[in-house]
Amino acid sequence: MINDLYQAFTEGKANVVTVKIVKELVKYTQYHFKSEEEHFLKLNYPEAEKHIEQHNSFTETVLKFSNDLSNNEVSLSYELMDFLRKWLIDHIMGTDKQYVGIKNK
Ligand SMILES: [Fe+2]
Question: How far does the centroid of ligand 1 lie from the alpha carbon of residue 88, in Å?
């Protein structure tokens, strides 16, 4: 989705296209985080609270961005796309990796 966003941006697609992609990204992120958090509960994962805080903070930022974009209060920029890309990569490669191998007791 971030690649789609980048492509739409570089091709100068209308705002309506980027708004749609960002909304999809928000929806998928919420779905994905929720399912990850359900696993934490099942596994009694000790780092769950800190991890969920990161999810909530990211969701809040992206939701605000999505609303501002819909209301034409901000426009998409390389900086914003870079923030999304870096956050997701750092989270997946860092925070998410910490629970790999944790088994249900
Ligand atoms: Fe996560």
Answer: 9
